[in-house]
Amino acid sequence: xxxxxxxxxxxxxxxxxxxxxxxxxxxxxxxxxxxxxxxxxxxxxxxxxxxxxxxxxxx
Length: 59
Prior knowledge:
Blueprint: E1 3-8, H1 17-26, E2 34-38, H2 41-49, E3 54-58
Antiparallel strand pairs: 1-2, 1-3
Helix pairs in contact: 1-2
């Protein structure tokens, strides 16, 4: 499976509870933090929910 790097670039303040929980599920807590995930449909769906708060790089 391919890997993707997800970096949190914006704050979760004033966001919905669902978006905050999605960021936590991705493992993102601080701005600038980068996490590497497998390129699965579940992870891609979570990224799509918060795509305005993160940046994504394919590896």
